[in-house]
Amino acid sequence: MALAVPGSAALSSAARAADADAAVNGGFESGLSPWTCTAGTTVTSPVHSGSSALQATPQGSDNAQCAQTVSVRPNSQYTLAGWVRGSYVYLGASGTGTTDVSTWTQSAPDWQKLATTFTTGANTTKVTLYTHGWYGTGAYYADDVSLVGPGGGTTTQPPTVPTGLKTGTVTATSVGLSWTPVTGATGYAVYRDGVKVASPTGTSATVSGLNPSTAYSFQVTATNDAGESARSATVTATTPARSDGGGSTQLPAHALVGYLHASFANGSGYTRMADVPDSWDVIDLAFGEPTAVTSGDIRFNRCPVSECPNVESDADFQAAIKAKQAAGKKVLISIGGQNGQVQLTTTAARDAFVSSVSKIIDQYGLDGLDIDFEGHSLSLNTGDTDFKNPTTPVIVNLISALKTLKAKYGTKFVLTMAPETFFVQNGYQFYGSGKWGGQDPRCGAYLPVIHALRDDLTLLHVQDYNSGPIMGLDNQYHSMGGADFHIAMTDMLLTGFPVAGDAGNVFPPLRPDQVAIGMPASVNAGNGYVAPAEVTKTLDCLTKKTNCGSYATHGTWPALRGLMTWSVNWDRFAGWEFQRTFDSYFG
After folding, report:
1. Which residue, 195, 198, 394, 468, has most beta carbons within 10 Å?
2. Annotated catalytic residue: which of 312, 374, 420, 534?
3. Which domains does the chain have, with CATH numbers?
4. What is the pLDDT of residues 53-77, one digit of tens each?
5. What is the tens place of the pLDDT at every residue in 113-154?
6. How far is Cα 161 from Cα 368, in angstroms, rounded to an integer?
7. What is the pTM of this model?
8. DSSP of 296-350, one letter per residue?
C-alpha cells in the first residue's frame, strides 16, 4: 500500500491545470502551417482523428522532415507525443538545451503512438519539434502531434504594425532600412517586393544582393510568440548604376558560352580553336585537372594526336586564342569536369592551385577561369550550416584561392562557375548534412563560394541538365525536359531564396547580367536536352514575361546575360542548332 502524502493530489491537479499543448496544428487540420516540410502534404485518409493527417514521402536524398518551432519555459519537463503510420517513422525534439530526444518505429502498419520526454535547459525558450521518415522507404503518416508541459509564455496577441519605415543608405546593390520600435515585439520581418528577405531582431536592416538601376518596394512586420503583425506602409527605393561596371561589362549584353573539348576526344569529335564560330563569346577550355584529388596542382594537357588526329599545333592553338581575343572573345581555362575532382583540403593545396592555375593562364594568355567542380569536390563538414560564414576547409580554401587570383589579375579577370543544380538550387530545401544530420553533405555546397565571390563573379551558369527533380520557389518539384525547369531554376537565382527553408538565412539574388542558363547542345550531349522552341519559351518568359508556362516568375529580367552549353563540339556535331537558336533570338 502506498502512503498518502498530504497535498499531493492538489499539487498534481495544479500542475496538470498549468500544462498546455505547445504544438500548433498538431492534427494538421489547418493544412501544413506552421510546419515546414520538405516533401509533405495533408490527406483525408488515413487519419488518426479529425479530418486530416500528414503524408510525407522520403526520396533518395531526403527524409521528408516536417518541423515547427514552439515556445517553452526554461527548466521545465515536456512530453512529446504523436501518432504515426509507415516504416521508419521518427518523432523528436531539438534545441532543448539539455539532451535532444527522438523516438521511432521500424514498422507501423496501423496508427501507433510514439512518445518521449525531455527537460528544457536553464535558458531555453524555443524548441523545434520534428517528424521524418527514412530515405527511399516510402510514404509515412503523422497525426495528433502534441507537446504537453508548462505554457511557453503569456503573449496572446501579435504586435502592432510597425511605423516610421524609411530608407537609409542606397547603393547599387543594397538598401538600408530603419523603423520605429514596436512594444512587445521580439523580432521583425523585412519584405522586398512581397517576399520575406530578412528577420532582424533590431529596428534596422540592410537588404543586399540587389540589382543596379532597379526600383524596389519594402515593408516590415513585427513578430512575437503569438504571431506576426500586418505589414507596414510601403517605401520604395531605386538603386543607382554600378560605378565599376560590375566586372561583366567586358561581355556583350547577351553572351553565348560554350565548352571546347581541348584535352580529350569523344563521339563529338575534336574542334580546333580557329574553327569555333564567332557567335561564341566565351570559350571554356575543357579541362584542367589535378595531379591528385587533394594536391591542388592543376595541369592542362592538350588532346594528343593519337586521340585527336586533327589537333592543331601548340603554336596554332595559341595563335587562334589571340585571334579570338582580338575579336572581343574571352577564352578561359575550365577546372574540374566530371572526372577532375578537386579538393583543396589544406592551405598548401590552396597555394598550389593558385600557382598552377596562374601558370596555365600565363602560358596561353587566357582571360580567366571557370570553376566546374562536380562529384565530390565540394561538400560541407557537419555543423557548417551558415553559407555566409563557411568553416569547411575545401570551401574556405577555394574562396581564398579565387580571391587571390582575382586580385592578381585585376578587374579584367573573367571568373565563371558551372555548378550542378544539386549544389545550388537544391539548397532551398537542404544544406549540407542538415541540423539533424543524415543528409548529403554536398547539397548546396556551392552557395558559400558563389556568395563570397558574388562581387567578383562574371557569370554563373548552373548546369540545368543531368539533374534530378528540384523544388522551385513555388514549392513544387520541377523536372528536366521543358522550359518550366529552366524558368524555375533561373528564377531562383534572380529572386534569391531561403537556404534550407530558413527565412532568416536568405541567399541573395544575383544580378541578371551575372546569370546564363546552362543547357545541353544536343540529345547526345547530356540528359535534359530541350528543343529550340523550349529555349525560346524560356528566354521569352524570363526576359519579357511572355510565353510562360505553369511557373510564375518573381520578376522580369531583360538583362539576363544569355546561354551556356555543353558543348561547342556537340553543337557542331548537331549542325550548330544551339548556336543558331541563340543568334536568331538575340540577333
Report:
1. 394
2. 374
3. 19-150 (2.60.120.260), 163-239 (2.60.40.10), 255-586 (3.20.20.80)
4. 999 998 766 789 999 988 888 889 9
5. 999 999 999 888 889 999 999 877 889 999 999 999 987 554
6. 50
7. 0.64
8. --EE--PPPTTT-TTPPPHHHHHHHHHHHHHTT-EEEEEEEETT------SHHHH
